[in-house]
Amino acid sequence: MFDLLSEKLQETFKKLRGQGRITEKNIREVMREVRLALLEADVNYKVARDFIRRVEEKAIGQEVLRSLTPDMQVLKIVRDELIALMGAEAEKLRVPPSGRLTAMLVGLNGAGKTTASAKLALRLKKEGRSPLLVALDVYRPAAIKQLQVLGEQAGVPVFTMGTETPPPQTALASLRYAERNGHNAILWDTAGRLQTNEELMEELEAIQQAVLPNEILLVADATTGQEAVNVAAEFHRRLTLTGVILSKMDGDARGGAAISIRAVTGVPIKFFSTGEKLDALEPFHPDRIASRILGRGDIQTLIEKAEEVLDEQKAREIERKIREQEGLTFEDFLDQLRQIQRMGSLDQLLGMIPGMDRLRRTAGLEVDEKQIKRVEAIILSMTPEERRNPRLLDASRKRRIARGSGTSVPQVNQLCQQLAQMNRAMKQLAKLSSGGGRGKRKRKRNAAADIFRFPV
User: Fold this and answer.
1) Cα separation of 157 and 146, whole Å?
2) Assuming Cys at both sites, which of 156, 253, 325, 354 could form a disulfide with 4, CB separation 3.0 to 4.6 Å?
3) Which of 194, 252, 261, 205 is nearest to 233 (CA)?
4) Do 141 and 39 sit in the same domain of this protein?
């Protein structure tokens, strides 16, 4: 996400850091480049113009020019203004006093409404709610079937009355069904439509009047940039939107829609989609997004993702093995690998670590997801006994594992060496935590080096 914009902004601020002394002229030159970067990222030109004006007014103040670190002061001003532009704070879904959340999802054809509906339903389910998906797309072939399949994957029921019943009538009937069956979150998946199609827009208004949802969420394709902003403005005029879900954010290297929508329409972005999996939906935190854009990572989201997927009991068992120098097995390694995979793609996870994007660009580092699959295939080709006791892996067993996993014996050997290397590092760390001794600093440095050599 935001790769192009982030790269240009980081290069621009690098020039500012290279100045021996920062002047008003330096700042104006940098702001001119920032403005070009925003326009190239497809940010609304009025939004970009006003943003630059506000930053310049604050950056040219004497407290910045006289500061010992004026470049960092300017960067902080840019970050603060980006946060303000995107809404200052994360906006949560509105839940009325009754406790029953009702949301209508609208948008263009192909924006990803049906998938977004299922993702949101799964998220609400994880939060302890009992969601109900309602199929109101009676025009697109197999739209109802798609929602039913996604609902089954998410473990969420789908209410439908077929393609012959008018959507407003189905929506009204779903309210009664939800009340009878104890559902406290109702998500209406409407048909995609152009904002210029008067007949279909009137249908949306009829659904709104029939069920009076407390949330009307526009699902907008982030990759369409300024067009997403125009669509949001028109839908907001007709329906009074309460929020936006930006879909396909993982495919948006520019970020124009994310930066412009709130400023142009006043409608907050509440969620954004980061992949095809049903759990790839994140709340939109303006401060975290601003940090990502400026190459500062997003440690808070990374921690939250880890807390969601990591198994506490297994983590305690790993900690015990390290403390008692018992040694980790391939079963332990496979468990850890799968927990990391549940957090999302490695590419996205690395992007949340401060400075990692810049390091990957300068060093040419690439994340090889296929390597992860190869490691998993090798471990799964072992017998349960071999996974628990790597010492059993002699030459003949390694040949069998290589054949079974579609890899080579050297690749199997490499994985075995990596596990042994990691266990040596863990033993050194355990010794360090239990006491000092000669060579303590050297052992600590070698242990850390072994750990960072381990990534597959």
Assistant:
1) 13
2) 253
3) 261
4) no
> Is it the case that residue 328 has pLDDT exceeding 90?
no
291 and 150 together in one domain = yes
pLDDT in tens, 286-320: 888 888 888 766 556 665 555 565 566 666 666 67
Is 117 in the same domain as 177?
A: yes
Residues 263 and 129 placed together within one structural domain of the fold: yes
Number of compact structural domains in the chain: 3
Find the radius of gyration of the CA atoms of the chain: 26
The whole-angstrom separation of Cα 135 and Cα 160 is 5
Per-residue confidence (pLDDT) for residue 305, from 0 to 100: 59
Answer with the residue of higher pLDDT: 248 or 236.
Answer: 236
Cα separation, 351 vs 186, in Å, equals 34
Residues 52, 427: Cα–Cα separation, whole Å: 54
Query: What integer pLDDT is reported at residue 158 of this predicted model?
Result: 96
Alpha-carbon torsion (250, 256, 258, 259), positive or negative = positive
The DSSP bridge pattern shows strands 215-221 and 101-106 to be: parallel
In 206-258, beta strands by DSSP E? 215-221, 243-247
User: How many residues are there in the chain?
Assistant: 456
Which tens digits make up the pLDDT trace of 29-50? 888 888 998 888 888 889 999 9
Asked if 375 and 456 count as a contact pair (C-beta separation under 8 A), the reply is yes
User: Between helices 70-86 and 3-17, what is the axis angle to 10°?
Assistant: 150
Q: Which alpha helices (H) appear in 41-159, and where do they start and end? A: 45-59, 62-65, 70-86, 113-126, 143-154
In angstroms, how far is the first alpha carbon of the chain from the final one?
24
- Containing domain of residue 209, as a range? 101-296
Exposure of 125 in the CB half-sphere (CA atoms within 13 A): 19
- Spatial distance between the Cα atoms of 248 and 353, rounded to a whole number of angstroms: 21
Check whether residue 198 and residue 112 sit in a common domain: yes
| Cα dihedral sign, 208-213-215-219 | negative
In a domain, residue 92? The reply is: no
Quote the CA–CA distance of 288 and 269 in Å, as a whole number: 13
Looking at the fold, whether 113 and 254 belong to one and the same domain comes out as yes
One-letter amino acid at 295 equals G
Residues 331 and 399 reside in one and the same domain:
yes
Residue 96 in domain: no
**Which of 374 and 183 is assigned the larger pLDDT?**
183
Outline where DSSP puts E strands in 181-337.
185-190, 215-221, 243-247, 269-273, 281-283
According to DSSP, the β-strands at 281-283 and 269-273 are antiparallel
